[in-house]
Design goal:
Strand 9 and strand 10 form a beta hairpin. This protein has 16 helices and twelve strands. Helices cover 47% and strands 22% of the residues. The protein is elongated and about 90 Å long. The two termini are 27 Å apart. The chain has three domains: 144 residues, no CATH class; 118 residues, Ribonuclease H-like superfamily/Ribonuclease H (Nucleotidyltransferase, domain 5); 118 residues, no CATH class. The chain has 403 residues and is an alpha/beta fold. Strands 1, 2, 5, 6 and 7 form a five-stranded mixed sheet that branches. Strands 10-9-8-11-12 form a five-stranded mixed sheet, with helices on both faces. The model has no long low-confidence stretch (mean pLDDT 90).
Length: 403
Amino acid sequence: MKDTIIFASALGISEPWFVNKVEFTPEIDGEVLHIYIEHKTGYQYRYDGDFCSIYDHIPRTWRHLNFFQHVCYLHAKVPRVRTKNGSTLQIDVPWADAGSSFTLLFEAYSMLLIKSGMSLTAAGEYMNIDGRILGRIIKRHVANALAEQPLEAVQELGMDETSYQKGHDYITVLTDKKSKKVVGLGHGKGEEAVKEALIEMEVRGADRDDVETISLDFSPSFIAACNNYFPQAAKVFDRFHLDKLLSTAVDQVRREDQKHNVELKKTRYLWLKNFSNLSEKKKKIVETLQQTCPRIGKAYRLKEQFKEIFQEIEKDKALELLEAWITLAITSEIEPIINFTSTLQKHWQGIITYFDGRVSNAFAEQVNLKIQEIKRVAKGYRNLDNFYTMIYFHLGGLQLPLP
């Protein structure tokens, strides 16, 4: 079999294209493989329903995946055709996107490396190109996917913020909890940031009126945004944010008590963990400290009881237990715990809505962690648009041309 036929088969080249010539040229780093592609003489290309004759050719070169150890380039004279209305149009070739200097396979494999966790710099070194070029390849594919892949109706929305840079610079992230993907991004963590993210979501075809529930934290700006932009949606305050607030209250009790009880020093993480997750040795330490330091002991028991309430399946029973817990907490005379009950009462409707569908912001929190990992791998982003691109690339649920 001729080498041109072998390479045509490997590249997936078909009529009217064929491999005309294959040659190696010596370079400093070794021989470079050049594959020259041509088209059949007299072939007419269809455009807008009409067959068009070739007007002239434009010489083009594309970087392809290495063949074994050899860097590989494809070369072709790409036809331009004269359309029915008299304009001149360069035809698309099947092995590369219009305007790209890389083949589809090269781009797909490069994106697969990034998807697997490599940084742009590391993937660029592996592919022997500048990592910034890979960034532009990803940006083009993400932009095309965002434009061409409309969102389905978003019914369960997650709303959270995550840090963008040091110095309290944040972005707001909207997630579709059913389809498990990011649907909107906005700069900041205020009401305007939610509006910006919402516009991104609606530009892609989703409608804010379809949102039935929104899980969020106790941010006043987020609450105001929900009231203004999603008046029909039920607000659900995530149980994990409640747990975090209560843990903060328990830790405040520990810090107050350790001023008079030196044995409480260096015990912070004992009180923050669930009792069931402690080792037997640490359980005994906690039990001893609960007796010698009754105030932190009572706060810790209330924390453990609070978590058990959210395991209750029946809503009425859960609400009964929650109301009883609030009474116990108020009568505990422990100020940080009493302040926590004030938060519960202030946002009561959004908290009890949790028990209707067990809606939580857990997925949004997972997205938050993944976004921070994206930032860590890249060692930060100075350009916000590039950061958005990588978030959508990894977490946008986009159908990208990966191998």
